[in-house]
Design brief:
The protein is of the alpha+beta class. Among the domains are: 83 residues, Beta Barrel (OB fold (Dihydrolipoamide Acetyltransferase, E2P)), CATH 2.40.50; 113 residues, no CATH class. The chain is 49% helix and 8% strand. The radius of gyration is 23 Å and the shape is elongated. It starts with a helix and ends in an 8-residue tail after the last helix.
């Protein structure tokens, strides 16, 4: 339990960076199935100045460019093998499919993202062009807030529609690119894919053991594309997970459940995860993470309903009240000011990270001048 609390405390400290961005435009990538620890091929393509498809020529020491995806590069130019680097396991040359190569203007070396058919060149160009640089880059702070995206809302809508039909495409790199972009997209953008998604196909992907690392994202997609029978199946799996105290895919299942059932399901969530004292910290954390994703989307479950649920959480789980402080601050939900003043005065929160999160919220609250006048400074 101590290890889990320390892990949660570190997440609270990291999330403090959100206050720097609280009043800055831009989208936030989904925190359930995307982590900044993993850089997706789509992100690498975004960050590159040049991207090409190149295939091994008759001379094995050279690669010939057969298509330009991004940047000012002469088509049919050649690249020396010595100027090519590739991650472990990635091919450095191919006599069959071209390699997708990227580099920055400041580098002489190319990096391979893997093999992909030349027939995907137009799609890759459209994908690269969907990032028009309109997003607001995050402030240069450390630690960086979790799952901040440089794309605008409009660019994300365009991007997810471009990649959706390539999910689990027979071309492995195309499938990897598509999944990476859908997984890191804001949930509000994913929700627009409803008509492009087939619930039965997604359900098969969820049950495929080989796709287990992608299960969270596909579970949330099922919440968008599914129907009453899918809702019943998700409910059954949630019950199984709770019985086993297994929070592995719980956040994603709760997002899907609430997408399919709506705000009326919040009373069940509050009773099950917040009022029930038998719930474990990972289970509580899963419920809060699901609410965060839904509150960010502000759709099937309106953000104001999520805020109400957070305030219920603050009331019944006072020692954990700091868990939601940064989210409330970023949404400018200042109605919780009095709640947090009372909690600080009562010294209910013992964790320094939780205290810091609450005090940061109060210092940002425009209605806290009088109410928070007696709040003690954080040690």
């Amino acid at each position: 339990m101590a290890t889990r609390m320390r892990s949660r405390a570190m997440r609270l400290i990291f999330s403090a960076g959100f206050l720097v961005l609280a009043f800055v435009g831009g989208s936030h990538a989904c925190a359930i199935c995307f982590s900044l620890v993993v850089i997706t091929p789509g992100q690498k393509l975004d960050s590159a100045d040049q991207a090409v498809l190149a295939i091994q020529s008759g001379d094995p020491s050279w690669l010939r460019i057969v298509a330009v995806v991004k940047g000012n590069v002469p088509v049919y130019d050649v690249i020396e093998q010595s100027a090519l680097s590739a991650p472990p396991g990635e091919p450095r040359s191919s006599r069959g499919k071209p390699l997708l190569l990227i580099r920055s203007d400041l580098s002489e070396n190319w990096t391979s993202l893997g093999e992909i058919g030349v027939e995907y060149a137009d799609w890759l160009r459209q994908l690269a062009a969907s990032n028009r640089g309109g997003g607001v880059s995050p402030a240069r702070i450390w630690p960086q807030p979790l799952a901040v995206s440089h794309l605008t809302d409009g660019e994300w809508l365009e991007r997810v529609r471009l990649v959706a039909r390539y999910l689990e495409d027979p071309e492995p790199l195309a499938a990897e690119i598509a999944f990476g972009e859908v997984a890191r997209a804001p949930h509000s953008a994913r929700r627009t894919l409803g008509r492009q998604l087939d619930a039965a196909t997604i359900a098969r992907w969820i049950d495929d053991p080989e796709l287990a690392p992608r299960r969270a994202a596909y579970t949330m997609l099922l919440g968008i594309a599914g129907g009453p029978q899918d809702a019943l199946e998700i409910e059954r799996r949630i019950d199984e997970a709770l019985l086993a105290q297994d929070a592995t895919n719980l956040s994603a299942m709760l997002v899907a459940d609430l997408e399919l059932r709506g705000s009326s399901r919040l009373d069940w969530l509050k009773a099950t995860f917040f009022a029930d004292r038998k719930r474990t910290l990972p289970e509580i954390d899963a419920a809060l993470l699901a609410l965060s994703v839904l509150g960010e989307a502000d759709a099937t479950v309106p953000r104001e309903k999520v805020i109400e649920t957070y305030r219920y959480f603050i009331a019944v789980r006072k020692p954990m009240a700091g868990f939601v402080a940064m989210e409330l601050a970023r949404w400018q939900a200042w109605d919780a000011t009095a709640d947090y003043v009372d909690i600080i005065r009562s010294k209910a929160v013992k964790d320094p990270a939780g205290q810091f999160a609450i005090l940061s919220y109060l210092k940002s609250s425009p209605i806290a001048v009088e109410q928070a006048a007696s709040v003690p400074a954080a040690e």
